[in-house]
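so the lab meeting is tmrw and i was supposed to have these ready like two days ago... anyway. pasting both below. for each one the top line is the aa sequence and the line under it is the structure tokens. i havent really looked at them closely yet so no promises
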Amino acid sequence: MITEPGRPGAARYVLFDVDGTLIDAVENQRLVWRTWAERYGLDPDEVHRVALRTRPMETFAQVASDKDPRECLAVLHELEDEDVRSGTYTAFDGALELLSALRPGAWALVTSNYEHRVRGRFARTGLPVPEVLVDAAAVAEGKPSPVPYLQAAARLGARPEECLVIEDAPSGVQSGLRAGMTVWGVNTADAENGVHRHFGSLRDAVGDILAFASGLPPHRPEGAGDTSPRSSSWRPTAAETMGS
């Protein structure tokens, strides 16, 4: 972990990744890629392994180099859209409470997915959609480029140092860090490289995220002190020591 940027008394904004951060879509993604792989007679496990660490066009180049990548992408999009309509989705514990408590205009979604799918999943899970949603179609460069998070900040009227990024994936973490923002990791057993703080679950981070958004010190259960089990890797920052 590294010391997070920011200054006491500054306005605060929260930028959320979607899949893996607010919405549990792991099994949905696995099923989509399995169905796609089977359609092309490929090993589903190998395809999914590659897809986890590459973008779709890169995945196609590695696992189906003899196929038309545009056709491959069209099939993938068809399967993903069908999954949004018929798949089972679950919001992570704490997501509804958290998003409902944030001030309108002070938070955004930044996703490598497409807006219509995000809206479909949020409708299925009852999560509110913010005013600002930066999707794959909105930017020329996706994560880990800083562009998606910088665009979200600009649309909110925020400076990078006023923003907190909530992420679960390495590419998203790097995107937030390269944008000069505070980055907290959630929903992973181990901290992703570079995060300022790590929480094992989104639920564990709710109080701290709301405190950040309010310009208050991090919330910790009474008597928990700096060793709160909600965040085993927590440590006070310079800004918090100054009572921001």
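ok protien two:
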Amino acid sequence: MNAPLPDAASAEVAAAALERARAKRRAQTRAAVLRQVVQWHWISAAVCLAGMLLFAITGITLNHAGDIKAEPKTVTRDGELPADLLGALKAAEAAGGDLPAPVRAWLASELKVKAPAGPVEWSPGEAYVALPGPGSDGWVTLESATGAVAYERTERGWVAYLNDLHKGRNTGKAWAWFIDIFAVACVLFSVTGLLLLQLHAHARKSTWPLVGLGLLVPVLLALFLIH
């Protein structure tokens, strides 16, 4: 029969086994965290891909907007509001209210003008509706006395359109929600990327110097070269 191990030796064996178990749990926890970080990193990267390309490219075009030549195109249309709708327009003018729905429907069908349901700028005898959009500006006027309708729209080209998408200019609530969601996804992408850098930094000695350089360069530019 083998002689029993002394108490000290037994304690050492137990401590070693406990330490191995702890090391195994730490390794399992680290692997689980790494899997989650990688998963969220690639998901956020997939969500951000198209938007990030759009905002990166339009960042360049915005920075060189003065160097990119565009030929604005202006479209004008005229018409006359039917007599049966003229009364509704006059009633809206008297109340200082919105453009009546039948009048907006007529504009859409006859002049291909999508007038919003919001407030109208009223002046004596005339309704003015601004029609701004990304990469474009427009307006329509309706004379309450004669029913004369005038429409004008100026398109500044695709580059101006994309630049306005970048700025969120005249793009509506849906695009504003997209920008907010895209921004959250970009934050998630950046944070998970930072965590991955942290997890792999021990094997890549240049990680933190490069991160520091990426932080230092814009700070120095902002402090010394921006007037």
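from a quick look at the 2nd one: The CA atoms of residues 218 and 224 lie 10 Å apart. The longest strand covers residues 73-80. will dig more after coffe
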